[in-house]
Every structure is written in structure tokens, then in C-alpha cells.
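Lecture 7 notes: from sequence to structure.
We start with the chain below.
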Amino acid sequence: MKRKRYPNRDAWLAARRQRFLGASEDAAALGEDPWRSKYTLWAHKTDQLPPTEQTEPMKWGLRLEGVIVEAFGEEYARDVQREPAFTTRIHPDHPFLCASLDAIQFRGRNERHLPAGPGVLQIKTASEWNRKAWEHDAPLHYQIQTQMEMEVSGCAWGSLGVLIGGNKMRRLDYVRNDRFITRVLPELKHFWFEHVVAKVPPRVDGSESTRRTIELLHPLDSGDTVELDSGLQQVADELEEVKAAKKEAVERERALENQLKAAIGDNTFGVLPNGQAFTYKTQTRAAHEVKESTFRVLRRKQANGKA
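Predicted C-alpha cells for the same chain:
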């Protein structure tokens, strides 16, 4: 495993964009990132999109990273050492894969269940409204990032430390999963060489990420005409079928709802012979940018009586 340290953040980001597939990008390359599709990652790696602008949460996450790393070590009685800024670790066998660790850690005295030697530490921040995403385990794309950081760095274990709502720390420990890593390495290699290096786009999917990327790549029309591939005839025909089925389904849904609403009438609840219930309650939409309005909403009640 080799390391390379860059003089500043811009140089570090440029190298990651042009020369490597980073651990934080591997989930997208595998189609497992909820915010970034394969197509978007490909467009980014082939330098067709402008550099990603930092959002406020991203800025504050970076500012708080050092504080959270230090607090993590104190909270869990571990020796934690921050990785030097703008440092990239490069995979010894697959030099297109890299990882930028937040820190390296060593297990505590009473943590013999963890492998000996250093472990990777990845720090995250999450808002209070996103607490449920961390309730049982870390989101999958962060687990993939942690596994790939272990693979690149050669560590046998690692942790995700997340600060939720600014005042609640949670730790999730993981042991290196060689079976998973062995399975995904060919997929990552395929994405890098067959799509990024070859500049051949991956399959276009229906994600919001891909939609936004296409709009960024093609914001204006030229007025010209392009002859489309014959294979797209089937795509066009299927699109018309899907639109027609969608329209029919929406109309059918509206008709069924109207039948139930009419039967409930002025009542708040309606109960079917099998005991299943519906509510048809009056609600008021608050006046913000639109005028306040009052309306009723039909909902099926669950078996426990909740709407």
C-alpha cells in the first residue's frame, strides 16, 4: 500500500477525480449509493460535470471532524490517530482504488473481540431527522466505504463514528468482510476500465441523480436532428405503454378513493365488514407561500388502529 500526500485540498480533489476511484465512491460504482448513480459518477470521473460544490452540512462536517475524532477516542477509550490532511492511500494491487482515511485507531484493553492491529475510522455527521437511518446499522453505502477502506489500507477491522443531531455519538464496529470484497472487486474494475477509462457510459437508470446529470450535460437543444439507434424503438414503445398504464392506474385509484369517500360521507371513520377501517379526516394546510386551505384526507387504518 502506497501513500501520497497532496499540498492542498484542490490538488487532492483533482487527483481523486482524475486518477482514482475512492472508497467513498465505490458504493455509487456498485449501484448502491442512494444519492449518486453510476451514470452520475461516470460523468464526474470523465470530467463532464463541474466539481461538486460543498454544501453547508459538508463544510461543517469537515470543520468538526477533528473534534469528533478526538471525542471518539475519549468516549470509547481508544488510541486514535488522525490521518495527515490531503493524504491518499493507494491499493497495492489495484492502483486505481484509493482511500482517504479520517483516522487510524487501536482497540481498547477490553476489546479482544476485535482483531489486533490498527483499524480504520470514518467519521460522519447526521441531522436529528436522519436518526432513524442509523437506528439499527449504518446506511449501506457507508458500510461499503468502510469495507473498501479496510481493503485499501490492509486493516482487518474498522469503525464508523457518527455524531447525530450534534449531541449523540454512536459507534459501529466492523470486521473486514473478505467474501464481500472479493465479490465487488471485479465490478469496480469493470466500472473503472470499461466505463471511465473507455469513456463509455453505464446503463442509464431511472434515478433522480441520473435525471439531474443528463440535464446538466445537455441543458440546451441545438435545433439539429439525430438519427436514433434502432434499439431505442423498443424503448420508445415501452415508454408509451408505461405512460398509458400509469394514466389508467391513476384514474382507477381516483375512482376507488371516490367510492370510499362518498360512502363515508360526513363521518370521520368507515369500517368494512372484515374490521378494516378508513379515516376521512379534515386537515388544514398552513399558509406559507400559498393560501391556507382546508381539505380532507382518506387513509387506511392499520390493524393496530393507527392511521
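Points to note: Residues 29 and 95 are 16 Å apart (CA to CA). The chain has two domains: 2-215, 265-307.
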